[in-house]
Amino acid sequence: MRHVPQQTDGLFSGHRIDASRPGAIDRITDGVRKRGLVTLTGIASRTDALALAAQLMAVIPHRDSDSDGITTIRDTRRHTHRAGFAGFGNGPLEPHTERSGAPIPPRLMMLVCGQAARTGGDSVLVDGRAVHADLVTGARAAASALAQPRSAYFGAGDGHPSQVFTLYDDHQVAVRLRLDGLARFSPIVQPYLPTLRAAIARHRLLMPMAPGQGYVLDNRRWLHARTAFTGDRVCWRALGQPRFAMSDGFTPQLVAQAAPALAGP
């Protein structure tokens, strides 16, 4: 059965910060540390987007960006059927980690809407922490297989072997994923891909954005996607490493729930 993303204004309003107000940077960094996601308003131009990104991260230029590191995401009408370039078409995107095929993917991603689509083009976000908890509690064998080292390969010939869930010594977890033609999985993982897809579908959140709105996410926790669209949708994207301290990943829900009990009276 196909799961339709849950549309909720609460996702945007519940994490919203006006980037043009004093103190916004401190509030954004605090929100990213705690929840892995902050939604933004008050970004009037590409120049504003670049200025904000530069305060939050060391922006990393890459293949598709301009020299300043900002990438303009729009339907170029030239990339529709090219593997790895789906973001520059108008079709839907599967939930994924940005630059999953890099040895060290950028920790932060910022996306800002410059011009809304005529129809569709909504952002879709998936909390990897919720997906991980879903699998640990309901499909533990899948969660274990997806954490096996080097059980996945993301990218083309210059891609990188990894795993969907990386477990750190301090019990933190990070997610890395793509599900398109540039993802390959070991025989250990392949039987559990339908289970993973179903868990992702259960936690998909639809987030429409108007011009001047956007979000910053922790690329080790949140997956992002997009619905198909018509019209001249324009977004600005920045990728980079944070200018503030962050833990290795997210604290799994079961560990977080157990912490008060472990602390004692």
Would you give an account of this structure?
The chain is an alpha+beta fold. The chain has one domain: Double-stranded beta-helix, CATH 3.60.130.10. Helix content is 26%, strand content 28%. It has seven helices and 19 strands. It has helices at 9-14, 24-35, 46-56, 128-138, 140-146, 193-202, 253-263; strands spanning 6-7, 16-18, 37-41, 57-59, 71-73, 93-96, 108-115, 119-120, 123-127, 152-154, 160-162, 165-167, 173-175, 183-185, 204-207, 214-218, 222-226, 229-230, 234-242. The strands form five sheets. Strands 2, 3, 4, 5, 7, 16 and 19 form a seven-stranded mixed beta sheet that branches. It has a five-stranded mixed beta sheet with strand order 1-15-9-17-6. A three-stranded antiparallel beta sheet has the order 11-10-14, with no helix packed on it. A hairpin with a 5-residue loop joins strand 10 and strand 11 (160-162). Helix 4 (128-138) packs across helix 5 (140-146) and helix 4 packs across helix 6 (193-202). The radius of gyration is 18 Å and the shape is globular. The model is unreliable at 259-265 (pLDDT under 50). Belongs to the gamma-BBH/TMLD family. Its cofactor is Fe(2+). InterPro entries: AlphaKG_dependent_hydroxylases, TauD-like_sf, TauD/TfdA-like. Pfam families: TauD.
Short description:
With 265 residues, this protein is an alpha+beta fold.
